[in-house]
């Protein structure tokens, strides 16, 4: 997953898929899966069957076709961002909006040492590892043994094994290990009750070391901030980040023109008259003729037959109806296909609040 | 692991205390004003209507708070206890007058408050007398509170707000902060967003993540945001053996002035290059060293691994370049269109002098000459002396014609894109030259920027740290050829005035297969059109057009709510992965 150092770089090491590589299989927008290349085995999805041996030797980014030419997928090189979208969710995970903000605000960079609790599914951990490589380290803790092991395996498969140490430990109950005092450059907490740990974090955060706590609930945030304040933390700030995604497509727009208005009005009047003549009879049994009202204006009989000028023609939906009607040849429609974008109607509303703080410095 | 930890601690030292000569960010009155400065003993800052020296800040930990203290010697900055500050800024469950009170349950409110400016009985004149007599800011604030008729009837929250407001005016506070991409971004976004192209800190962070900036990356940048994006990527790569190429069209060399605000180590700076787009495209399509551009390359020096390492400077940048290779670099930078290229050699004999090699094509004599100079760097100028080396074809007459040697460069390596101008006198007999050239923006930072504070005066001879050395230097032919062969590992575009689709069409081929790219633009429609075409032409997958959203909250007991002020928008990002 990580970049290869220059002196180890060859064409193949960088670009081509090899046996054992983790590959991101891109099926469609919003549908991606992970796969580990294994000669002799096949990757199956709704589009087709893809033998792994076909992939070996192809460069990442290639489009591969399935057996018998049925179906295709793209094979992408794993990055922490893609990994977040394909990893197996053992727990609720952080997504790129929160992850990128955390990494930026905690000023995580190469060579830094980061403490994280809990590991969860390793989504954030993977990004942290990418940011601290090659000389830094991530010490990640989770109190669930099986999940910790699953995370360890994921990191190893992605080539991050030497950068991440996952340990099984209940940080809320026990705090961070003693041997990490004074070694951290940033601390990240994703705990149900972070206020229990905060009083004990002072020693780990000496020297302007930033802390981040992620909590979905506002009550958790409030208790966390209270604990931070009473433990002499400073620069306490709470944020919420979201990404709004846009759906981009083309659409044909009808447009209105002034020519053919007369004809349009006449046609509409005609269809109105036709509708009304089929109206129910009044109580006295006689046909009721109601005055024709167009756009709030009551039309006289003359206007109905002549067609009043300058009354705007109908909305575009009925426009379409008119154009389908072969009798109305006077209507001119300019249609143009345009590229348009609008937000997706369904969007992620909330993941959690991010609270940042630093240990207050002591007066010299 | 123990080596790692001691290494980490010493590295952390960089972000822990204020080091003399480094760039610092001053947060005045909790976000009211931001200023960048250099931590020199002679640097000054203006607070209210007094100027104070920044000397007391040196050696203090970041996050330290200072306020002005009046002294017979003159106003100076004094560090304030953290606890006092925390209490007034964070906490609203206060112990004002010894009473703990939650405002919602308070029986005080503002029903009787009449806002007609008569509540304060202390006059402006009396306040100025107090100040003249040396009363501290805090004393003045206390006096104002004591003389306010309406203060007692205010709610606790109101009282705190009042106190903070008076404190900001009469006892301004400075918090010294470490400049990082995030804090610089936030400072600029709050005060002068146009300078960084309205890039908000969460958007910046998103760009860096989506572009997979990390170890051993070769990042291609089209940065028209004042160089800030380049610097932020540089910070994220942090000397971890990757490279950054800030590219440009025509002769519009990217401005890299922002690089000076970051305290980059030589390792980090040395990974930042710039190269014109046509060169990169040529290299990529031919996958061989661009021929015919350069004198030296035409002589056929082959690109060896040693050359690559020397230009890339992976580990010890200061010793990596040997004199012979310096010449090659200088030679390979000779370009018909460039008037002068000034390259700083990596050999530093002493901290005070640097050797410079320059190749000049001077139309006045019609021959290119090579100059080797020793330069003594002062904060605002270079003192140079050296010798000119003429090519063999140059006649004696021609040699004597060269009377002055003018030095002018747009991409002076070491200070980013900062113009250095001057004229040096050439001795017609010995062909020695000496003189002084002014380094326009080495006096603190660019003077036109409101945010930026000219910290030093011209006379002071300060040994500026090598932090920004060589950042933004022109990439050598070898380097360009390397990128042509392997492709860049990602692309970030921050060019609000360029059409994203045309940028993609030209620059996506420069990427290695399956490389991520991200384009930031203040407007959505151009990105939507770009996305549509990329999809249609199948040039990329995993395309996503996103609008980042950020909201800050005030979290206080019974007073938790989002901030009243919020940024409505900070542009759009189109991200994707290049397909083969």
The major beta sheet of chain B can be summarized as: 9 strands, mixed
Fill in the CATH topology of the largest domain in chain A.
Rossmann fold
Q: Kindly estimate the percentage of residues of chain B that lie in beta strands according to DSSP.
A: 25-35%
The structural class of chain B is: alpha+beta
Order of helices and strands of chain A: HEEEEEEHHEHEHEHEEHEHEEHHEE
Please state the average pLDDT score of chain A.
Answer: 83
- What is the helix fraction of residues of chain B, given as a range? 25-40%
CATH H-level name of the largest domain in chain A... which superfamily? Vaccinia Virus protein VP39
Total discrete domains of chain A: 3
User: Helix/strand-derived class of chain A?
Assistant: alpha/beta
Tell how many strands the DSSP assignment of chain B holds: 23
Poorly predicted parts of chain A: 307-333
Major beta sheet summary of chain A = 8 strands, mixed
Distance between the termini of chain B: 41 Å
* Main sheet strand line-up of chain A: 9-8-7-10-11-16-12-15
* N-to-C span of chain A: 44 Å
Structural overview:
The complex is a heterodimer of chains A (364) and B (580). With 364 residues, chain A is an alpha/beta fold. Chain A folds into three domains: 6-78, Vcp-like ATPase, Chain A, domain 2, CATH 3.10.330; 82-243 and 348-362, Rossmann fold (3-Layer(aba) Sandwich); 246-343, no CATH class. Chain A has ten helices and 16 strands. Chain A has an eight-stranded mixed β-sheet with strand order 9-8-7-10-11-16-12-15, sandwiched between helices. In chain A, helix 2 runs antiparallel to helix 4. Chain A is flat, with a radius of gyration of 32 Å. Mean pLDDT of chain A is 83; it is low at 307-333. Chain B is of the alpha+beta class. Chain B is built from 18 helices and 23 strands. In chain B, the strands form four sheets. In chain B, strands 18-10-9-8-19-20-23-21-22 form a nine-stranded mixed β-sheet, with helices on both faces. Chain B has a seven-stranded antiparallel β-sheet with strand order 11-12-13-14-17-16-15, with helices on one face. Chain B has a five-stranded antiparallel β-sheet with strand order 2-1-7-5-6. Chain B is flat. The two termini of chain B are 41 Å apart. Strand 12 (233-255) of chain A pairs antiparallel with strand 21 of chain B, so a sheet runs across the interface.
